[in-house]
Amino acid sequence: MAENQEWVELTVTVPVAAQDLVVDWLLEAGASGVQESYPGLFPADGEGEVISGDPSEWWGEAPKNKSGKVDLTAWLPKSYLSLENDFQGFLQRLEARFPGILAHKVSIENVPAQDWNANWKATWKPTAIGMRLMVCPSWEEPPETDRIVMRIDPGMAFGTGTHFTTASCLSLIEEIVEKTTVDSLLDVGTGSGILAIGALLLGVKRAVGIEVDLDALAEARENAVRNGVADRMTVTSAGVGSGEGQFDVVVANLVAHTIVRLAKPICQAVADGGWLILSGILAEHEETVDREIQAHGLKRHASMTEDSWVTLLYRP
Amino acid sequence: MGKKIVGQIKLHIKAGKATPQPPIGPALGQAGVNIMEFCKAFNARTASIGDATVPTIITVFSDKSFTFVTKAAPVSESVRKAAGIDKGSKLPGRDSAGKITKSQVQKIAEAKMADLYAIDLEGAMRTVEGTARSMGIEVVEG
Ligand SMILES: C[S@@+](CC[C@H](N)C(=O)[O-])C[C@H]1O[C@@H](n2cnc3c(N)ncnc32)[C@H](O)[C@@H]1O
Q1: Which of A258, A310, A311 to mutate for ligand 1's pocket (most ligand atoms within 8 Å of CB)?
Q2: Among partner residues A51, A111, A157, which is closest to B8 by beta-carbon distance?
Q3: A158 and B39 in contact by Cβ < 8 A?
């Protein structure tokens, strides 16, 4: 994902009946998505404001959209220069079926590249994970604690420790490190690098983080430096099974279908007597993943679950 | 229980391809939701759908947690697929000639009944046909 991409934001008011066609046109024109809003409409019994969306899809009594109109906002690449012309031309063709559609102003504004996660970041506070670790946002003063503090700036990468899939993987790594000596760890889909860095801080000697997203790759490297473990951590975009050998612990917090697709090289990377931790799996996909991993000769050892997420532990 | 709802957001986004960029970035950022967490959950749930746009309604709670539901793809997308018109093979807005049969119309109408605010199948089919015509697609018997 290109973090620096610049966008234009197009906003238009259209009759609800024309919405589908307009959304379709915008998506075909290259919009990354479209947001629906019904300003001035509030759900009858909701506690807060509807930021966008149709309150009739809310529970309770549906409020009536007296205006019969909807605001649509779409984001398109700034490089689409004839957007305004093309869109007006499209509205002109719709005018016959939806008289008056041309009367509404179309607004097109530049949106500078920015960190959309900034609001959320402001609410992210130091979090204890397992028995020994404390994840602390890189911009926050670490609290007084006996725990090992790990400083993370996820940037636009995944991995802050607040998500169950990350926290459960870290707890399992901690348990394994308590039990045995772990020399090496492979982290497939390292994101912010949090799992590999956490493992190194817990005493694992060396770690390799694999990542396909180039933005995340850079964040993982910076986080390794931030925590003083860069000399023991390799971050790479090389695919799993491209010659990094075997590891005492392999952890992969991915989505189920990627795990299934990469099952063979992932399983082969687990050393004899080692451990495999899998996460990012929705309960409905657990069976498929489990079957695939057992088919590669590993045995299920334990599992953890919260909400609809499942984390699985295997051994050869 | 007892979690307060602070907002609801509706987006049309690509199945399995959520990123922290617009529209998810600005829409969820404004609500204070952890965007990466949403992207992960959304992609996990929709990756198997393939190349399609999914109308998605996200409900945000006071502790910044969220839930979301996805709905059936919009009529126009189903129509375009049924008519076999390739994505990107036409300039946006340019009328694209294509054909769709009555029975295809009926299938789409059935799948979308709940979302079309139509009282009966006939009404839903008329809406689908109207959409097809506005897209320059002809409805034929069959
Ligand atoms: C859910 S995040 C996990 C981040 C971190 N390890 C954690 O547990 O919080 C999954 C990461 O895997 C990356 N990824 C997805 N497919 C991949 C693949 N085939 N190979 C390597 N990385 C992949 C994604 O870019 C994303 O950063």
Answers
A1: A258
A2: A51
A3: yes
- CA–CA distance, A183 with A198 (Å, rounded to integer): 14
Same domain, A171 and A275: yes
Residues A118, A169 within the same domain: no
All residues of chain B having their beta carbon less than 8 Å from the beta carbon of residue A64 are none
**Rounded CA Rg of chain B:** 18
Question: Mean of the per-residue pLDDT values for chain A?
Answer: 89
Write out the residue range of the structural domain in which residue A57 sits.
Answer: 7-122
Q: Are A313 and A301 in contact (CB under 8 A)?
A: yes
Q: Are residues A291 and A213 in the same domain?
A: yes
ipTM attached to this prediction: 0.72
Q: Tell me what pLDDT residue A45 has.
A: 46
In this structure, the answer to whether residues A192 and A309 fall within a common structural domain is yes
Q: Does residue A152 fall inside a structural domain?
A: no
At B2 the pLDDT is 47
Q: What's the pLDDT tens digit per position in A62-95? A: 566 777 889 999 999 988 889 999 999 999 988 8
- The pLDDT value recorded for residue A4 is 57
User: Is pTM beyond 0.80 here?
Assistant: no
A158 pocket-lining for ligand 1 (C-beta < 6 Å): yes
Q: Is residue A138 part of a domain?
A: no
Is residue A2, in this structure, part of any structural domain at all? no
Residue A55 pLDDT greater than 60, yes or no: no
- CB–CB contact A24 B135 (8 Å): yes
What CATH number corresponds to the domain at position A162?
A: 3.40.50.150
Give the burial class of B66: count Cβ atoms within 10 A of its Cβ; 0-12 exposed, 13-18 middle, 19 or more buried.
buried
Which of A32-46, B11-25, B51-65, B106-120 has the highest mean predicted lDDT (pLDDT)? Answer: B11-25
Percent of chain B with pLDDT over 70: 85
Whole-number pLDDT of residue A100: 86
Domains in chain A, number: 2
Position A56 pLDDT exceeds 60: no
Q: Which of A12, A19, A20, A156 to mutate to test the interface with B (most CBs of B within 10 A)?
A: A20
| Length of chain A measured in residues | 316
Neighbours of A288 (CB within 10 A): 14
Task: Evaluate whether residue A128 is within a structural domain.
Answer: no
DSSP B31: H
Query: Tokens in use for B114?
Result: 């709940």
Alpha-carbon distance of B135 to B114, in angstroms, equals 22
Q: What is the pLDDT of residue A53?
A: 60
